[in-house]
Amino acid sequence: MSYIDGYDIVIGLEIHAELKTKTKVFCSCKNEFGAQPNTNTCPVCTGMPGALPILNKRAVELAIKAGLSFGCDISRYSVFERKNYFYPDLSKAYQISQLVYPLCVGGKVELDSGKTIRLNRIHLEEDAGKLTHISKAVGTLVDYNRGGTPLIEMVTEPDFSSAEEVVEFLKKVRENLVFENIANCYMEEGGMRCDVNLSLKKKGTSELGIRTEMKNLNSFKSVQRAIEYEAKRQAEVLSGGGVVIQETRKWNDDKGKSTSMRTKEQAQDYRYFPDPDILALNISDEDIERVKDEMVMLPAKRREVYQEEYGLPLYDAQILTSSKYISDYFEKCVSLLNLPKKISNWIMVDLLKLIKEQEDILFPISEKALTDIIKMVEDKLINKTVGIKLMEKTIESGEEPLKLAKEMNLLVTISDEQIIELLKKLKGENEKVASDYKVEPARVEGFIVGYVMKNTGGKANAGKVKELIKSVFDN
Ligand code: ADP
Ligand code: MG
Ligand code: ZN
Description:
Elements: E1 7-18, H1 57-69, E2 73-74, E3 77-78, E4 81-84, E5 94-97, E6 104-105, E7 108-110, E8 116-126, E9 130-135, E10 139-143, E11 150-156, H2 163-179, E12 192-202, E13 212-217, H3 220-239, E14 247-252, E15 257-263, E16 273-274, E17 281-282, H4 285-293, H5 299-308, H6 314-320, H7 324-336, H8 340-354, H9 367-378, H10 384-397, H11 401-407, H12 416-429, H13 431-439, H14 441-455, H15 462-473
Parallel strand pairs: 13-14
Antiparallel strand pairs: 1-11, 1-12, 2-6, 3-17, 4-5, 4-16, 6-8, 7-8, 8-11, 9-10, 12-13, 14-15
Helix pairs in contact: 1-4, 2-3, 5-6, 7-9, 9-10, 12-14, 12-15, 13-14, 14-15
């Protein structure tokens, strides 16, 4: 980026993701998006005097799972603390979070370039409610449904040096969380959002500069734009001889710029202290093992297997791991028919084409039916064009492909197995043919081929039959 000549960008992220639990993290209110405002609330999540929080075990498990998926150490001892501040979206006037003893420590994410982004921690906390500013005259509306939704906060070390790295990282984080069924990460619903801490340092120096923080970016595009804008702004300040003010800034996506929200001097003292209503959390080996048992193979690992063991190109591996569903589907197919590249082609070219519009992909044909069709094509029972037709017909009717193929008279030849079966039948029924074959094969060959043709309605391949006669009649 030429506009920041002479400086290196330094970025660290704080990422929030809402966990996929049925209920909130400290009460039994539903954790759902889009309900009527303020219907999923109770004395606990609205912080009524005397109400007591009870920790949701599932939220802890999902946070541990997130930690394991990024290679964090899972703390055997962690503590929930109150982060005190007043704001209308937080009716308790404190958020329950973790500070000194977070649930997960360390961890990392590897970028395609081989560069490692270190995680500092992942901790468990609760979300606040949602404010909607209508206008000066009408005022602001508040919805406490989101208050108390379980969140993980992931904090990275300041290891990023470009917007591109940040976006790649966020995509990889989202991929893991979605694959492991930890979070939906619907960014437009605020299911995953990110604070960007950014500073510049003179090229070649190691000392970090003063940073600013941009809060709650919730699309890859706005992350990218906000970073570019802020890097440029800081470069202008610095090269004009000024100093960057440590502050929190608000990104305005419509205007394409950020403005100061509050400086370090105005920063609040949250007066963190251990929440006396919640016991410290002790995690056992069994707890961790239980979570490990429900973990799946992560996409990066799957891409490795697809390339190294199945010999697929990176391109195929990437498309096939674009969702857990597609990836699982592909793997099931390969377990039924060991032709990974053929299956990959069918899925990528023929199957995905059929459902281009759908957001949440569910293939309308079972793995068994698809591989049956692919096998028919590979066995040259039908050609590829007919195979695609057969696939469409299978989807339409829900019938088994082989049955359909027979009904529709699509099979141009008979499978090897069917020929062998007929040959064995003939050998068993007709001793004379069997013994004649031993003496002078050529003399009875025509008869045998004729028999198979008669019994297959002429659909066997004569050359193939001749090939197979030996295997049956020679022993
Ligand atoms: P705080 O508690 O004030 O939020 P942290 O030390 O926890 O501060 O850091 C928050 C985030 O800011 C982390 O992601 C970290 O990597 C990042 N960060 C810290 N110092 C810098 C810096 N000089 N430039 C860019 N990012 C930074
Ligand atoms: Mg911070
Ligand atoms: Zn509640």
